[in-house]
Amino acid sequence: MEIPAKLPFSKRRLRPRIVISYIFDYVIIIACAIAFSILNTIEPFHQHFSLNNISIQYPYAVHERIPMAYALCISAAFPLALIILYTLFIDGLFSHHKPQIAASGKRKLTGPYRWKDRLWELNCGILGLLLAQGLAFVITQALKTACGKPRPDLIDRCQPRAGSKDLFPGLSNSTICTGDPKILTDGFRSWPSGHSSSSFAGLVYTSLWLGGKLHVMDNRGEAWKALLVMVPLLAASLVAVSRIMDARHHPFDVITGSMLGVVCGFVAYRQYFPPLTEPWRKGRAYPIRTWGTEPVGPDSVRFIDSRGDSSTALRNHEEERMGPPDIPSSEHIRSDVSTYRQPSNPYTSNMYNRRPHDHDADGGAWSSSEDDVTNGYEMRHGHTMGQNPGAGHHAPQYDPSNAYVSQTQPLTADPGIYAPEAMAGPGRPLTDIPGRTL
């Protein structure tokens, strides 16, 4: 089979390994489904048990409150429908600055995002959801099979032969059971809870995804956003609690299964989407992945002081002017620095280079799937801006005078850091150095 030269969401020609990497994502999800099916057919380990243990003497509930099919509808089908509906029809509908239609001059009702932008977001959203569920199912089933912990209703499933007693000293095992073998086998799959892990995996992912789209951590304190984000978590908790009510799992099984689901949901979300603590990214999916570039660290995003923007961090400028007590005031870093620029990063969309909560000031027409996502520059070692192989032109040299410097630490003589004091010489005061404010 010939590998396509580009993804359907981009006009750029991509290397085969990039296309293969996204195909491989779906292959991993399919492999998880196959692995779960295989693990489900393996006989689990049967732990010994005591007929006198009251914690496994609950009655067997023939009808569960939330069968697995219903749990999958809650944790997978509903989030999938939400992602499709929001991404294709709602995303950008309430944008503050919608682009105008050239012909009529009216603003676009659907917002700034193009059809291919929505398809890329849909692709990443579905990939993350399936990955969360796939990881939860495989890990849970592997642990169930290996541990073989008895369920709370094991004695009722076992139907011990008349006169059966625990060995002395010792415990009973499954050889004394006369119940349905299929039901009995499932009775040794108590830890961890599959309902809990799958529900929390899918719904924690949904909660994070929804929180990113609603900019829930934008420092504006809109309680309705927090309420909407918490609804999926409440649904997952109710599904998990129902397993204790049906005596299918011990509380420990439910708690650990829920924790496993939370981890799977979080990991899957962060593979394709930025953290909620960066609300200016508006929960948009990461751009098409690349290799050969350094990971973007937490210090790569600089605040651009918007003077009054509610997303600007609370700062005490008087304290920031204060240096260490043993440093003269003339050696303090200039106190009027209010702009921190984000160094350009290749293969990132314009949205990642915009200031926090610049609410569609440029029309909001950006996307992770932009054709020109390679128009940035790559940060190289030594604080220089290298040539971007996808841009087709050379970048200007990095100006060290614009480098980010701490507002509370003294300048050093490191050649890679702009130090005005190092430039001062005999007869040349600091005030004569460009960009230096005392």
Automatic annotation (TrEMBL):
Chain spans, region Disordered: 300-438
GO CC annotation, single: membrane
Transmembrane segments: 20-42, 68-89, 122-143
Molecular-function GO terms, alphabetical: phosphatidate phosphatase activity
Record key words, sorted: Membrane, Transmembrane, Transmembrane helix
Recorded coiled-coil stretches: none
Biased composition range(s): Basic and acidic residues: 315-335
Pfam families, sorted: PAP2 (PF01569)
Claim: Transmembrane helix is one of the keywords in the record: yes
Membrane topology field: Multi-pass membrane protein
GO biological process: phospholipid dephosphorylation; phospholipid metabolic process
Location(s), subcellular: Membrane
Domain (Phosphatidic acid phosphatase type 2/haloperoxidase): residue spans on this chain: 124-269
Signal peptide segment: none
Biased amino acid composition, Polar residues: 336-352, 399-411
Record family assignment: Belongs to the PA-phosphatase related phosphoesterase family.
Protein name: Phosphatidic acid phosphatase type 2/haloperoxidase domain-containing protein
Annotated source species: Penicillium vulpinum
Lineage, broadest ranks: Eukaryota, Fungi, Dikarya, Ascomycota, Pezizomycotina
